[in-house]
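Hi support team,

I submitted a single chain yesterday and got back a structure, but I'm not sure I'm reading the token output correctly. Could someone confirm the output below corresponds to the sequence I sent? I've pasted both exactly as they appear in my results page.

Thanks,
R.
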Amino acid sequence: MKAIRKQQWRYLRLLFGLSFFAVGNSTAGATVGQKLFTVADDIGISRFDTGGPGPVVFSPDGRYFAVITERGRLDVNRPEAFLRVYRTQDIVTFLSNQKTTGEPQPFWTVRKSTYKDGPLITELRWLTDSKEMAFLLKATSGNERLYIADVKTRNVQPLTAVNQDVTAFDIQSRSRFVYAILSPRIHESAIRELHAGVTVGTGRDFESLINPEILKRTNIWIHDLSELWAIRSGKRFRISDALTRRILPLHLEGERALSLSPDGRFAVTAVTVASVPESWQILYPSPSQSSAYRITRRVQDPLGLAGQRDVSEYVLVELGTGRIIPLTMAPIGNAAGWWGVAHAEWSLDGKSVLLSNTFVSLPSGNTGEQHRSPCIAVVELPSRRTSCVVHFGTDWEAIDNATFVRGNSKAVTIRYLSADGTYHTHTFAEFPDGTWNSVANLPESRADARPIQVFVREDLNSAPVLMARMNNPESSRIIWDPNPQLKNVRLGNVSVFKWTDKKGRDWVGGLYKPPDFILGHRYPVIIQTHGFDPKQFSPSGAFTTAFAAQELASVGFIVLQVEDCPIRDTPDEGPCQVAGYEAAVERLSSEGLIDDSRVGIIGFSRTCYYVLEALTTSDVHFTAASVTDGVDEGYLQYILDIDGDSSDSIAREAEAIIGARPFGEGLLQWFKQSPEFNMEKANTPLQVVAMSSGVSQMWEPYATLRYQHKPADFLVLHSDEHVLTNPAERLISQDATVDWFRFWLQGFEDPSPSKLDQYRRWNSMRAQGRPSP
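Hi R., thanks for writing in. Yes, this is the structure output for that exact sequence:
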């Protein structure tokens, strides 16, 4: 790993010294005093934290509010996070005097750059006394550590040991909180295996067998087994199951759901079901027959090192005794393909619990159809009377959040993602007859009556800034611009672009144009896949891995950032995506914007499959393509997925998408439908990028092209991340994207000495028969 880091730093030094000079030579059309946008600029942009309760978190008494931002720093090769705390009254004073210039200063700023990957500060929450905040901070080891910050003394102190990796917490005070840590069994198991004379591979995933070092990595997405701990009256202890006397094991669902009762006696969480009943297969179906995720009768290991896909249920844990009480006697919906974050919340009086995305058990003989989908449920304690606030509908893509309104068990606000890719928020109230109904307005509370509103403003062409206003919109002012450096950078214009495919399906995306765009000139175009948010400033595009929208626009490309087709887990999924890409190219060409003989496409994660499907089935001639760290619906990935998790999720999705299992007659269907069995139809230079822990997963498309002597490049990015945050790794990933498409679509070669080898490879590929642009 040290050698890898040295190579990255050598690359950075060469790039800073020479590569940016080459980019500067291509900015003749830039406005005086401005430069064109680069990957380095992208990495240095500060973003507001949008996880948890939102980008702005007020203290319960409204006297303070806090915001978190994070940016990448190439000079130290780390992210840098800022926790800024403002006094509400200072902002009221600032807004009341419109003649005041400059930005109001925060009351307190906490600045951290502790680890190579982000995010660094997460899960910020105020304690009920409004005097302290708790949050997770990455330690220098990469472990997440729980901290508490005292606003009065401006002092930050750790609450957990440096050798504990915290995966979840809920807190009421320094002396009363619960938290989960990654189990030491993960590391102990890895050490035993590394020193063993033989390894039993039965029931094990392929990657950990060929690379046992992966077992030692403290990464919740590789191994998520956690242990539950509690602090009561200042005493720290690990929770053990009252029946088995063993540790109480938690996996991802339980970590997300962890919630402490107001009196500190109980916690709600979720646990892996040891034996999934056969009746659950019938009672709790998936949203569609084609879904790759379903509940089946099976035996599960609650102490398994990886249980992200386990069938789980919500439970109540009595902390003092370890007694575990099932709350719904039914599974959480994720295991059946009903997507939503597992979440639990107590009412202020401690008499009710809100549970997100759970099925509910029915009285004997009741088979009501509405109960065949999960719901947002409120469980009254101790009677365990359960009522469903609202059931999932077919137009719901995922539950994003559900919470009691001001701690009142009779009112719930739900935020969900609909099938069209937009978020919606609805509030429900319980009526006297016990039913829940949507309501438009609720009586105002003290929190609603705060003298100011603080929010983040951004759009497609404007970087995020922190805004505040009084009760009238005219009083709105910027209180902090975290990216003043962008005033010296010239960005291409981004607009919403809409089109319709041949089957009448409507599509929407973001169209990035070069800063010096000339109407009537036909530009090469790059299609970036995997989503589009019309309200967000996204210079990279949908993600920071591989995508580089503004960077490509700055050097003469039009870039279209495309939403995904909502069709999932059926044989129509790939063709739907391709139809959208084809219609977009046709529309852009008909409007005179692009040169349809120079078209590139980028896939990441799930959309690697979409790109390979396009290369093997589309009428569009793609000049170059790139895929990074994703699924391809190929035979090798299918075979390697066995025992990858409790549900073999990649394999199940492949069966649904291809329409058969690759055995017997089903293999004939794979010959027709899987892109990897049709790579003889692909004649597009393909860049394949794998993360160090997933080389085998990305090997098949590359190898099939190499066997056919077609242009294919394979890069291994030495990273543990999927969505990249490390500055050096982002620079390598996004810069490789820009270089690859400039080479094949523009005939451009960066003169940086650090890149001589890559151009030798690529020119050798071009000599295999690919024409120059």
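A quick pointer for reading it: The chain is about 20% helix and 30% strand. Let us know if anything else looks off.

Best,
Support desk
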